[in-house]
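FAQ: What does a multi-protein file look like?

Like this. Sequence, then tokens, then the next protein.
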Amino acid sequence: MRIGRFAVDIFSDGVFKPDGGSMFGVIPKPLWEKVKPADERNRVAMDMNSLLIRDADHVVVVETGAGSKLSVKQREIFGIETPRLLDELKARGVGPAQVTLVVNTHLHFDHSGGNTYRDGEKIVPTFPRASYVFQRLEWEDAMHANERTRGSYLPDDYAPLEAVGKLELIDESVEIIPGVRLDRVQGHTRGTQTVRVSDRGETLFFSSDFMPDRHHLPLPWISAFDLFPLETLAAKRLILRRAIDERWIVGFTHDLPRLGRISESDAKYRFDEVAD
């Protein structure tokens, strides 16, 4: 898809399977299972999506999926198969050394696992020329995870980046390159950030996990993984209104890898896919 001078692709690193009840919070299972059927272990299949953003001077990867470092047990628990990130990039003509920026919306393992890989006894950056960009608050919380959060953070995904000088920590809202903006949206975590790509009157918005798929468009449908659910609610009200009024193209972190527009009718939100 073209957004002005940018070529933007959305693709999946593969599927993971979190607990369905956790994914939909206070929404009763008879409601959420109509749109997202659970398996025999009450897990729901969610894609781990990435964005590839390119112009003449930059190659930006947003989200790196679960990566290749998880143990067999971890993969079995979450139903994760072979990661596809590098193959998907290769299919689009991009090698690891061509990537100039990597953005993680937050540092949970299903978003940052592909930041690094094991090279013998060492853990090294997957993208050797890239700076890795995320919110300072997210870095601090990931590096000092607590009893509530540490199950979602795996330090090998991000801590090794500091030693090799690859970190670019930002605060609040920053235009990382002209036309690509990151905004901190507290809700899922304190340091979650969204991505907006804007050029020549078009805007593409990548939501992050405060609104992980189209089934979370209804305002009360908020994941139990969100640390600040009322902040999520406030962010959804504001961002959905803007997305509709300004006709943003929208992509989700955990939906099928596709882009679309949001509309509202009879107080209900709808997502309609758009062609490339």
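And here is the next protein:
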Amino acid sequence: MRFIDEHKDHRVGAGGLRWGVESICAVLSEHGTSIAPSTYYDAARRAPSKRALRDADLRADIVRVHQANYGVYGPRKVWLQLNREGIPVARCTVERLMNDLALAGARRGKRFITTVADPAAARPADLVGRHFAPTAPNRLWVADYTYVSTWSGMVYVAFVIDAYARRILGWRASTSMRTALVLDAIEQAIWTRAREGISELAGLVHHNDAGSQYTSIAFTERLAAAGIDPSVGTVGDAYDNGLAETVIGLFKTELIRRRGPWRTVEQVEAATMNYVDWFNHHRLFETNGDIPPIELESAYYRQHPDLAEAG
């Protein structure tokens, strides 16, 4: 049916002759696929089945969900989001229809090391030991930065993430990777929590790699002023700061590589702002029980109202 629909009335040759249903059926029969014109016409007149009508509606919803989430969701996350929206559908159905629509999720690329350590700087101990699963928000923040190539030069983007729900609390984009870049990101993270009524950060661990920006005097003094304990992993070891590497990898895969080429730092900054909002409020994380970071934090404070009030 689909083959005939796609090729009937198709003009061929210099004279612009058209293929008819009968001639297409004849050629198909000659090549071992026997189909009578009457069979085609009967099928064409037949009303669409319930499955076909359902598939048509689901295709529209699948395309909408896929586009609304940066085009990075594979079948599993599209299936989860549809069910979150009250659209019951089987995962295998989503897989079948996404295959028909040629839609796929994003795939992670290679990691590039940006850490440049200062051998003369004092380095705090590693207080995390690759354990990135705190039992509450504001127990562990992880930080790192990456780069984005633009037409006007290199742009560096720094992030601060609360490890409990993978929520991005602070970020900053700059054409320089000096200490001010990571200072601005931690300032935004502290401001974000203060806006939510959480100003007491004693006992919080801030973990990063051994980059010179993070071991600078200005940065360590800012952590101390906020009552935050510094923690540093080893140089060039992605596992020692694995959670931050994961979030930055998602940022590069889901936004930077898919939406380029990038022209200016302002363009990267605006796109990152929108991405962070989506990431925190809408992106589904399997490690969060397939809910977004903000929802997991909210669920925690509903279960521990005394902590929310204390904050």
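Q: Is there any per-entry metadata?
A: Some entries carry free-text notes. For the entry above: The mean pLDDT is 86.
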